[in-house]
Amino acid sequence: MKIAILGTKYSPPFFRGGEEHVIFNLVKYLSKRKYSTEVFAPKFRKWRKLDSTSTATNVCRIPVSNIRFFYHFQFARSLERCLKADETDIVLNTHTALGHNLSFHPHIIVVATTNLGEADSASRSGLLGLLEGLIRRKFAYRIEKRAFQECDHIVCVSDHIMDDLSVNYGIQQEKMSVIGNGVDCTYFSPSVPRERTPDEQFHILYVGRLVNRKNVELLVRAAGHLKSNGGRISVRIAGDGPERSALERLSKDSGLENMIQFHGICSGNELLNLYRSSDLFVLPSTYEGMPLVLLEAMSCGLPSIVNAFAGAEKVVTEGLNGYILREGTPEELARMILRIHDDSELLISMGGNARRLVLEKYSWDRIVDQYCTLFSSLCDPR
Predict the structure, then answer these.
(1) What's the rounded Cα separation, in Å, for the pair 252 and 110?
(2) Same domain, 372 and 337
(3) What pLDDT was estimated at residue 360?
(4) What pLDDT, on a 0 to 100 scale, did the predictor assign at position 336?
(5) What is d(CA 188, CA 191) in angstroms, rounded to the nearest whole number?
(6) Are 22 and 93 in contact (CB under 8 A)?
(7) Sign of the dihedral defined by the CA atoms of residues 297, 299, 300, 305, in that order
(8) What SS3 state is found at 197?
(9) Could you please report the per-residue DSSP string of 277-337?
(10) What is the dihedral of CA 153, 158, 162, 164, to 10 degrees?
(11) pTM of the prediction?
């Protein structure tokens, strides 16, 4: 069986986001099960050098413009021609708009976030956010809804995404299933356990894009409340984005330059080393689907503190493997950080529980088993 996988970005070994990690592992684990795969991605001029250095095989890059939203139409038109000549059995689409108006069947769309969810989050962040929210609600939403209606099946990465599609997009429950994101638990694994001394530095880690809905400002402001801890707590921020300059400026103005380190975009091994050498993971986002970085951190044995975005309680259980922010204030986040910092036994038990949860529910072997079952049902509905 041949699977065509659609994604907006795919240039391993360099990964710009979670979507690429998902595609990379789908290709890897489906190949183990003797599926043939080919990735179809836009070919942007601005990423030409990066794409040319990629080690990925079986990738078809379709030339498009750099104009946001417009390139989706160019890609979809050319994709039809490619698929007809490719003897594809199933299209697995990880970015909804890339497959809008697609006549190929069966067509599966994987939904990690929706435009309405993104719009609500963006609208809380000033004038540009309001504009983005308006575009998503009035333009992108319609394209997305049409794609959902025309495809054969929708994979939601979490229950609350399924609820969103049912309530706000009118999609029938029987057309959807929930299959979470997966983690390579062999690669993302804890370092050798070590005993923490009271004077040893405690490292807090955030990984992700630096954009408004990730709400990293909350973590920076919480660090200000932890400053009086005598320098025994550090904050590591891995990732890049339009908010980086503002966050660095806030860090400097708050006198936190020595406490907060901005690591930028990290390679695979650099990111793994950050996970393994950190003590606590913090994800202050206001909106998420099934955050891959959270699962990676937990797979490395890190307890987590997350904001109360929809679906957070499906991964983080209060007091068992982390905490969920209810007030969403810097003071509350600082209190929770100190609760874990001050209790070494709690730190160890939470980390162990986090690792066990990922092994039981989110290993790529388990996730791909679910995809294979879905493929079989769509190709042989009897």
Answers:
(1) 40
(2) no
(3) 95
(4) 96
(5) 10
(6) no
(7) positive
(8) coil
(9) H-SEEEE--S--SS-HHHHHHHHTT--EEEE--TTGGGT--BTTTEEEESS--HHHHHHHH
(10) -130
(11) 0.89
Phi, psi of 182, rounded to the nearest 5 degrees: -115, 165
- What pLDDT score was predicted for residue 198? 60
Number of helices (H), then strands (E), in the chain: 14, 13
CATH code: domain of residue 60 = 3.40.50.2000
Q: How far is CA 288 from CA 112, 135, 285, in A?
A: 8, 19, 7
Same domain, 138 and 219: no
Task: Note the pLDDT of residue 29.
Answer: 94
Residues 164 and 49 in one domain: yes
Percent of the chain with pLDDT over 70: 94
Residue 195 resides in a domain: no
- Distance, in Å, from the CA atom of 90 to the CA atom of 104, rounded to the nearest integer, reads 8
Give the pair of three-digit tokens for residue 70. 């417009």
Domain count, the chain: 2
The reply to whether 316 and 171 lie within a common domain is no
Structural domain harbouring 86: 2-182+363-379
The SS3 assignment for 78 reads helix
Q: Decide if 245 is inside a domain.
A: yes
Is the residue at 110 inside a domain? Answer: yes
Does one domain contain both 122 and 264? no
Question: Within its chain, how far is the Cα of 234 from the centroid?
Answer: 24
Mean pLDDT, each 10-residue run in order, the chain (382 residues): 92 84 93 93 89 90 83 84 81 89 90 84 69 78 90 95 94 95 94 66 94 94 85 91 94 94 90 95 93 96 94 92 95 95 93 96 95 90 51
Euclidean distance between CA atoms 264 and 348, whole angstroms: 28
In a shared domain, residues 128 and 262: no
